[in-house]
Structure formats: structure tokens, C-alpha cells
TrEMBL record, chain A:
Top-level taxon of the source organism: Bacteria
Protein source organism: Actinoplanes couchii
Name the UniProt record assigns to this protein: Uncharacterized protein
Transmembrane domains' residue ranges: 21-47, 53-75, 87-107, 137-158, 165-185, 197-219
Record keywords, A-Z: Membrane, Transmembrane, Transmembrane helix
Automatic annotation (TrEMBL), chain B:
Coiled-coil intervals, chain numbering: none
Domain ABC transporter as annotated: residue spans: 2-228
Superkingdom as given in the UniProt entry: Bacteria
Taxonomic lineage from the root: Bacteria, Bacillati, Actinomycetota, Actinomycetes, Micromonosporales
Name the UniProt record assigns to this protein: ABC transporter
Keyword field: ATP-binding, Nucleotide-binding
Biological source species: Actinoplanes couchii
InterPro entries assigned to the protein according to its UniProt record, in alphabetical order: AAA+_ATPase, ABC_transporter-like_ATP-bd, P-loop_NTPase
Amino acid sequence: MTRFPIARYLLLNHTPFLAMCLGGLALFGAVALGVTAALTTVTLSVADIGGQILHWLAFGYGFSAAGVLSTMIVHGRTRREFITQHAVFQVITAGLLALLVTGVYAAEAGVYRLAGWERRLQEHHVFGAGDYPMIFVAYWSMLAIALMIGAFVGVAFLRGDAAILWALLAAVVLVLAAGGVNGFFSLGFNRLDLESLPLTAGLSVPLFVAGWAALWLAARDVAVRTKVPA
Amino acid sequence: MIATNALQVRYGDTIAVHDLDLELAAGRIYGLLGRNGAGKTSLLSTLAGFRKPSAGTVTLDGRPVFETLESTSRICLIGDDGAVGDGTDRLRDILDMAATLRPGFDTGYAAHLMDRFALDRKKTLGALSRGQRSAFGVVAGLASRAALTMFDEAHLGMDAPTRQLFADELLADYGAHPRTFLLSTHLIEEQSPLFEQVLILHEGRLLWRGDVDDLRSRGIAVTGPASVVDDFVYGLTVLAERALGPTKQVTLYGDLDDEHRKLAARYGLELGPVALQDLFIHLTGGVP
């Protein structure tokens, strides 16, 4: 029997798809930058603005985990395998995407320097414009936690009834806590201004684990109802 | 062997399956019959580990089914919507996924079935018609070569030739790779030739279980002149009546004693087998 078949399937099929989506978003950002530069003076980092969108796209993709869980069970796998292997997939994929985003920041820095444009980042971030290790860690933290939150909320919807309310409540708490740690969705009252790589990385772990625990609670005995969208 | 012990499936206050004790020996084709809401899908979902039993147990060869990989990897349930992947996935990608996830999946046989059912591998699951989706579910189910393969109304939307193809392929593969099939259907007459045993579920309880021939022998059809038939069946349990001009056919429940058989011979009445559907309707409470 193949070892870790769920993680293998997701990493070989979903991760490249997500990387392509990120490439598409970067391309769209580049076009938007070109149009902006033709019309007015560029002062903001377009990668930084795109990063905010990425946050919500990660939630959306994470939500689709419920469908993946159903498919895995239809093909004879267990919920326990899914809970474990989907988390592994999330950590690896978030790391890979964070690496690509860091590369986009670096490429953008070169372009802005050549063009002589000002490059301001949003002030609530935990990283500076050239602090690439911190950019990588902040994005890894944001993507992994957002994927996990989306996953447990999605599975809670599959479960139905009161689970949805509990999941949404847990999601709000985790989004706000994660916002304080990695600087994404920072609303002021939840701002921690950590700006320390070990601290951001270290505090991200318990938040991801808390999300994983919520996923376990939602998925451990959820009934599968299959349906192909028309 | 798949077995249930005091199995109960509940949805809130509604009990879909009541304290069911069932043992299905391996290597046979079983038909699962029941009216809408009889608990067929709830039972199949629980047998496959899609749903946790509310009470009682389900075991495959002595091992629990729910959340036991050694069991679930040997069970395949294809539902009535052929949902074996995401609607946006191409069929070839779903088959590749099935090969990754299922240890016994036969890719070559899946390719053969795709050709037989004339399914386009480049199409997405969501783009298929209802019948094509059902056919694809059948492909995934048969190619899984799971020790226990269950189809829950998997023929929905298929036209008659495709349903025949499904039956032919199922029997051919059953002959080549004997395993246990459990087929839930409302097409009783059409699919009953496939069954070695029939289970009738009614209001969440096992109403009847036995060989198809045993079930069939519980009824008898009497054909002859209408007035003679009417006199003959007086006092017997009539399941159905059909008149064609002066000739009438009446379906009776239960076997005839020797006296009735002699009477039938004396009056020239023809005795024959009954339609399973008539027996099924009678056993499950008659026509509403």
C-alpha cells in the first residue's frame, strides 16, 4: 500500500495548482503595476497588496477540504488519515508558496529600484521591505493558519448544525490571534508588533495546532454526504 | 464477511435503521430492496464507514469498519450520484487518484470500462450527464476490485442499453474476480437476475432475506378465464390482478395446497411464477 497517499495526492496535484494560481496572481499584479505606472506615480508595493488577497484565497481553498475529505472516504481512506495528511500538505504547501511570495518581493524590489519608484509596505506588517527571512516566515504562518482555518470551517459545514457556529467562532478567534502574530488582518487592537522571527514562528505553531485540533473535532466522525455540483 | 450487530442509525429523533443483525457471507451478489425511506442508503453508508453507527457494530471479517483502514480500503460504495471526485476534476485525473488511494484498483480494467461505457477521459465529472456520471461511478466501483463493492441505485439516469452493459460487466468481472456485491435498486424485475440473495428492508428493519427463488416461490400466478379465476382465488391472498379480454391473471401470495392444485388442473388454469415486484409490493404494505 502506498505510504501517505492523501498527502502524496494533494502535493502532486493541488500544490502545483496553487502555485500556478499564485503565478497568475503575480502576473496580474505585474500588469496592474504597469497600468498604474503609466497613469500615476507608483508608491506602494503591489506584492504587499496582493498578499492581502492571498490571505482570503487561502481561506477559500482551505474550505474545499470538506470535498477532499468526502472524496478520500469514498475511495476507502479514513478520516484519521485525512486529518493528519492534510495538515502535512498544508504546512509544506504554505512553505512552498511563502518561498514563491518571498521571491516575488525580491523581484519587485529589483524592478522598483531600476524604475526609481518608491516602495512602501503596509505599516502593520511584521517585516520590512528587505527582510526576506521575516517575509517568508510571516507568509508561511499566514498561509498555513488560513488554510487550516478554512479546512475546519469547511468540514464543520459538512457536519452541519451547531458545529458551524462553533467553527465560525473558533475561526474568528484564530484569525484575530494569527493577525497579531504574523501581521495579516491586523486591526489595531490585536496588533502585537512582534517583529521577531523566532517569536512569530514560535507563536504560529500553537495557533496552527489549535486549528488542527478544531479540524480533528469537526472531522473525526463526520458523516459523508457525496454530491457532484452541476 | 460483513456483519452488523444491533446496528442502529439515527438522525435526531428519527431512527433509520433499527437494531439490525445481519451477516453477509463473502463471494455472493446480494440485492437490497426497500421502499423510499426504508433505510437502504443509511445502511449502505454505515456498512461502508461513511457514517458512524449510532449504536451497535459493523465488522468486515471481524474487524470494525468505521475508521479502520484495513476494512475501509476493502470496501467501495458508489452512491446514486456517482460522486467519486470533485466536479471540476477530469475523469482521467479521478482514475489516477483512485489508483493512488485504493491498493487494489485495476487501472487497466478501468481503461477497458471507460471504453465500454464510451466515457471521455478529458471531460470533467461535473460536465457529465446524469447517466454518464452513473456510468463513471460504475467504472470506479468495479475497477476498485474491493472485497465488498456496493452500488446504491448506481444505475440512475442510465438508459436501458447502458444498464444492460453494467449488468454484463458486473457478472463478467464477478466471474473472473469473485467478491461480494450488494446492489440497492428499485428496478426489481430488471436487476433480480443478478441477485443470488435478496434482502428486503422496510421501515429500518430487515423484513425478508433469502434466495431469489425462495422469494419467488412465495407467490404464484393463476391464469385462465376471468370467471373461473375469480372463483378459484376466493378466500386466497391476492396480490395483483391483470385482465386481458376474457382472460385474467391473478397473483397469489403463498403456496397452493394439493387440493387447489388439483382444482386448477381440472379447470384448465395455468399456474406460473410471479413477478418479484408484486411480492415486494405486497410484503412492504401494498400500493398506497
